[in-house]
Write a structure and sequence with these properties.
Shape: globular
Low-confidence stretches: none
CATH topology: MetI-like fold
Helix content: over 70%
Mean pLDDT: 79
Largest sheet: none
Oligomer: single chain
Distance between the termini: 6 Å
Radius of gyration: 25 Å
CATH class: Mainly Alpha
Number of domains: 1
Number of strands: 0
Order of helices and strands: HHHHHHHHHHHHH
Structural class: mainly alpha
Number of helices: 13
CATH superfamily: MetI-like
Length: 338
């Protein structure tokens, strides 16, 4: 099967799965207990006002008509209005700035965790049974077993609370005093900062959250890479390459890495949903304004419209990650296309 037909088939699967996700996301919030009208206004609203709200949001329409209307809103990126978190604001206005914050945190953290984890796992497998293997796997198991919030709290207490090297909260804001000597004194608001000050401000607030996020995710990749590489290094073609006098560097990087990376790619795709959910604890501890903290706030305020939009974004992210993983598979292992 050529690449064009492979991508076409996968695209059809993605469309079908996307429709199922949208349908599930719609009906999930319709079967939850309670009257959605009561979320908008506190007790004591008049019947006339209740009728106006029901008419505006089509709550008295047949369920099929509501679903068709919801499909149109989703494909035009109209997620409606928040009801309790910030009444009167659209969900998109609230989500987009926080989405950017989370993408920066998750993007940088995921890249670092994959790079560190893969290299630790590769070194441990190549020298299995030796000190590198023991130390590397020991450190990975510690971070893999440790609750995310606990490690994040330790970092916050030591480096932000006691040593005061980093800020206690926020995704951006002030800049470190030592940087003012070459960036100038920071203005009162983030929007008034220069480009260099904005970059410094974000980096200053990202250090601790990224460390907490990276070390937790890194451990999983290190353990999987070590097990996968150990299996690959016992294959016959590796023994043949050694018998032919191929250097260890070529065997490790050119022969073993491609096959050993297959399980890692799978875990990357599967972990996207967990990664987005895992940011909740990191963002809550560091009061980082991202999707994780926003999800917690939406649950706390019972803002169903905002929750519905967030669930849809997370589900689509997992779907997109799995599609990318399938495409990457075809380059790592051409047999996938057959």
């Amino acid at each position: 099967m050529d690449m064009r037909r492979f991508l076409l088939r996968k695209s059809v699967y993605v469309v079908i799965t996307l429709f199922a996700i949208i349908a599930f996301n719609f009906f999930l919030f319709r079967v939850m207990p309670g009257d959605p009208v009561r979320v908008f206004i506190q007790k004591g609203m008049s019947p006339e006002l209740e009728a106006i709200i029901r008419a505006k949001f089509h709550l008295d329409d047949p369920l099929l008509d509501q679903f068709i209307s919801y499909l149109g809103q989703v494909f035009t990126l109209d997620f409606g209005y928040t009801t309790t978190f910030k009444p009167g604001s659209t969900c998109a206005e609230i989500i987009l700035p926080r989405l950017m914050n989370t993408l920066i945190l998750v993007g940088l953290g995921t890249i670092l965790s994959i790079w560190i984890g893969v290299n630790i796992g590769k070194a441990a497998a190549w020298r299995r049974g030796k000190a590198v293997d023991t130390i590397g796997m020991g450190i990975s198991l510690v971070f893999y077993s440790m609750p995310t919030f606990l490690f994040a709290l330790v970092l916050l207490l030591i480096f932000a609370g006691y040593l005061k090297w980093f800020p206690l909260a926020g995704a951006y804001g002030d800049i470190p005093q030592w940087s003012e000597s070459f960036l100038g004194q920071a203005p009162d608001t983030y929007l008034q900062m220069s480009l260099g000050q904005k970059i410094m401000s974000r980096a200053y607030h990202l250090v601790l959250p990224i460390i907490a996020f990276t070390l937790e995710i890194m451990a999983e990749f290190a353990l999987i890479m070590r097990n996968s590489m150990t299996d690959v290094l016992t294959e016959d073609y590796i023994t043949t390459a050694r018998a032919k006098g191929v250097s260890n560097k070529v065997i490790l990087n050119d022969h073993a890495m491609k096959n050993a990376m297959l399980p890692v790619v799978t875990v990357m795709a599967i972990s996207v949903g967990w990664v987005l959910g895992g940011t909740i604890m990191v963002e809550l501890v560091f009061t980082y304004d991202g999707l994780g903290k926003l999800t917690y706030d939406a649950v706390f305020y019972k803002d169903y419209a905002l929750l519905q939009a967030l669930f849809l974004i997370m589900a689509v992210a997992v779907l997109a990650a799995n599609l990318i993983a399938d495409i990457v598979y075809t380059y790592l292992d051409p047999r996938v296309k057959i």
